Amino acid sequence: MSNEAATATTAAEAAPAPDQIPHGLGASLPAADARAKTEGTFPYAADLWAEGLLWAAVLRSPHPHARITSIDTSHAREMPGVRAVVTHEDVPGSPLLGRGKADRPVFASEVVRHHGEPIAAVAADHPDTARLAAAAVIVEYEVLDPVTDPEQAFEAEPLHPDGNLIRHIPLRHGDPDAAGDIVVEGLYRIGRQDPAPIGAEAGLAVPRPDGGVELYLASTDPHTDRDRAAACYGLEPERVKVVVTGVPGATADREDQGFQLPLGLLALKTGCPVKLTATREESFLGHTHRHPTLLRYRHHADAEGKLVKVEAQILLDAGAYADTSSDALAAAVAFACGPYVVPNAFIEGWAVRTNNPPSGHVRGEGAMQVCAAYEAQMDKLAKKLGVDPAELRLRNALATGDVLPTGQTVTCPAPVAELLQAVRDYPLPALPKDTPEDEWLLPGGPEGAGEPGAVRRGVGYGLGMVHMLGAEGADEVSTATVKVHDGVATVLCAAVETGQGFTTLARQIVQETLGIDEVHVAPVDTDQPPAGAGCRGRHTWVSGGAVERAAKMVRTQLLQPLAHKFGMSTELLQITDGKITSYDGVLSTTVTEALDGKELWATAQCRPHPTEPLNDTGQGDAFVGMSFCAIRAVVDVDIELGSVRVVELALAQDVGRVLNPAQLEARIEAGVTQGVGIALTENLRSARGLIRHPDLTGYSLPTALDAPDIRIVKLVEERDVVAPFGAKAVSAVPVVTSPAAIASAVRAATGRPVNRLPIRPQAAVVTGQ
């Protein structure tokens, strides 16, 4: 690493001492960075340092919609200690960026389209100087009326050269004239969730002697970030290097490129390393959020409760730019009917631009919003039919071999009925005692509830589904190299560890395949072949699959000389607990002896079977695989105050295969807890496009005190034959399902419709009791 910037870069991750840990797949191998993160010694991106460091600050728009009439940087440039000021005029390459579509300017030039859009960036000798200089850039605006209602975006003047409509999917499946004996309708709204990443968004840019630049970032998709940066800087990709460092965890697109790209520009302009650490306010303004969504539903069912037809309109608010809204809309439309058999479905989906905060990839995007709506519809149907809500769901549960509304046959395991039965039959928690000592168990916390007699308990259900990997023809490929030398194995793969456990899984794969205890996973940078983004379970599937294939190739190299010597094939040899034995017991030696100082290595790729885009009627085999979850929620609601306490969430999930029990349980619990935030507290509010309270006092995240008892009732291990190891993604589907289950339980407790997330107190108040 140039310019001594290595002082805070994540070191290669090594397994703990072999006599202290279990080995191989199926064992609860601890994460290599767990101790450093718990002790506070993990080097985050905000800890980066380099000799001759400059500090950066970004000037952002105070308006959600305005025309820029002039930008005067002269005062900022003249300030002592300021080394550079850059605007749109200083972008030598492509002025546009974007994850799904390049439609977002690096710096606004003629118009600003959302509150917080970058306009200029400053590099200075001190962070305070940089901030003061950014504030000294004078921008003259002609303030325009913002378009903040996504329904008005269809008729409003175009906010972008590409227009206001990003994508429209009209899904048509079955008979449009089909009708049921029972019809229920509903209008639902889902708020804007912020990913609220742990750790500050930060980065360091270091100029290279060849005129290129190195970016040290907590990136979750380094090769894509490199390619966008290179296009912005007008450089070949080989002259831009992204080094992944200090990723504390991610449940979405962690890093805002609106500050990544200015870093490199400033470093190239000044010839010095430049660092930027975003404030929490800047994070709220800059990075993308979950799409606020408006949903209209009409469900038809026969007299027995079997679904006949589902009609829906889904409107996603993308904010100012497209980002990944097209992908989110595809998931929302495809899963609009949920994990139920629906012979006739007619879904209209739109994603539109507004002047609201930007939306993009957040765990379970699209699927989470529709899950809340279709599960509310199932509750309405059950009530109208006088049927138990769980029983109604069982009558319609999807199974392997059924067909989705997109026309795709479900070929993966889909034990939806089994999951629902497991949570339905699980014993309910005991009722709280009506004594002062136990008042802290009531909604609102200690002394926060009204009279205990005003508390009502409700039980509700949620069934959710998500797709795994990319969709609609995305080329999901990953490359990995496994090297063995001096009895130590090293894995090189550009799959970023974002908390999903890839580095732990990679070590387990190599341990099991090669019988080697000490396995290191090398740090990630763009000198390695691409592995893609860390989302939708792709690193467990695709990157884990690449590691497995490379490890098996090394295994063959290791065993071939022995097999040749004893006149047998390598398939007749096995490696167990570091020992190589033959089927007949003739051969028995250790892996160390067989290596005998040799250096072995192999590189392999993993690419799942291809998918196809949805056609003009929303039909197509768009998804590689799917994962399912059932949750039963138990809540206590103070019907006078509207406060809600989630008592227990019982969960059953199909996981394909448990690769690391402790890690899997932690991922499920984290996903469920994130869903509690969506259901009850998390909503990044804005007024006419201006974000209100962009901080963690105005945006309420659930804490450990808000986390309910989470009971993992059943994990169905029916292996998906097309997936490496047979495993499925586990963390997204609990996020998707738990808000719907909690809303269902609040409906059961109050009799109120609960058609908005997060649930507002007034929605849980019952009058006339």
Q: Topology, pairings included?
A:
Layout lengths: L12 E2 L19 H6 L14 E7 L5 E7 L1 H5 L3 E5 L9 E2 L6 E2 L5 E2 L5 E7 L2 H10 L1 E6 L21 E9 L8 E9 L11 E6 L5 E5 L4 H12 L6 E5 L12 H14 L3 E4 L2 H7 L6 E9 L5 E11 L7 H10 L9 E9 L14 H19 L3 H8 L19 H10 L29 E17 L6 E8 L2 E6 L8 H13 L4 E3 L16 H28 L7 E4 L2 E4 L5 E3 H5 L4 E7 L16 E16 L5 E11 L6 H20 L5 E2 L2 E2 L17 E8 L15 H19 L5 E2 L12
Parallel strand pairs: 2-15, 11-32, 13-14, 17-18, 21-22, 28-31
Antiparallel strand pairs: 1-22, 2-8, 3-7, 3-9, 4-8, 5-6, 10-18, 11-16, 12-13, 12-15, 16-17, 19-27, 20-21, 20-26, 23-24, 24-25, 27-28, 29-30
Helix pairs in contact: 4-5, 7-8, 8-15, 11-12, 14-15
Architecture overview:
This protein has 769 residues and is of the alpha+beta class. It is 24% helix and 26% strand. The protein contains 15 helices and 32 strands. The strands form eight sheets. Strands 4-8-2-15-12-13-14 form a seven-stranded mixed sheet. Helix 14 crosses helix 15. The longest helix is centred in the last third of the chain and has 28 residues. The termini are far apart. The N terminus is likely disordered.
